[in-house]
Amino acid sequence: MAQRNDMTAGEIAVVVGLLFSVLGFLFILLSSIIPPFSPILNWSILALVMGIVLILVGIIMKTKEKTLPVQTTFSSQNNAVTKEKETIVKEVVMLPCQYCGSLMPQTSLFCPHCGARRKS
After folding, report:
1. What span, in angstroms and rounded, lies between the C-alpha atoms of 85 and 77?
2. In the 8-state DSSP scheme, what is residue 78?
3. Cβ atoms of residues 21 and 51 within 8 Å
4. Helices in 8-95 by DSSP H: which ranges?
5. Are 70 and 84 in contact (CB under 8 A)?
6. Angstrom distance (rounded) from CA 97 to CA 116
7. Tens digits of per-residue pLDDT, 5-45?
8. Which of 11, 15, 58, 73 is the most exposed place for a label (fewest CB within 10 A)?
9. Residue 85 — pLDDT band, cuts 50, 70, 90?
10. What 3-state class would DSSP assign to 97?
11. How far is CA 80 from CA 30, 71, 77, in A?
């Protein structure tokens, strides 16, 4: 199974949010236990809240990211990469022959069954 090295924006937001949350929580604990750390209590709470917000935003971004299968072809002529994102479906309209009644494609000039020329 191939490993994916690149992280999406949602995954980055979750990781940064976890980092902020853990650091904010640790500094809140330190400021409540050790009195010299009490001036950083406000910054610790802010870091904890920012971390929670970033985690939520990252989760929302991850759910909205949709990965569509993209087919990549390499051209040896000009070394260009072409990505095909959609498939074009062509419909063939069948018309009845005015002589024998069998169906023939609209683009054909002659009926494949009786050989008569199609009338315009």
Report:
1. 21
2. T
3. yes
4. 9-33, 41-64
5. yes
6. 8
7. 677 888 888 999 999 999 999 988 888 888 777 788 888 88
8. 73
9. low
10. coil
11. 57, 14, 8
Residue whose tokens read 């909205």: 64
* Statement: the pTM of the whole predicted model exceeds 0.70: no
Percent helix, strand, coil in the chain, to 5, is 45, 15, 40
**Coil, strand or helix: which one is 114?**
coil
Indicate if the pLDDT at residue 118 is higher than 90.
no
Reading the block at residue 119, the tokens are 């009338």
Is 112 exposed, middle or buried (CB count within 10 Å of its CB: 0-12, 13-18, 19+)? exposed
Q: How far apart are CA 96 and CA 12, in angstroms?
A: 61
* Side-chain-facing half-sphere of 97: CA atoms under 13 Å: 16
Residues 6 or more apart whose CB falls under 8 angstroms from that of 22 comprise: 51
Amino acid at 44: S
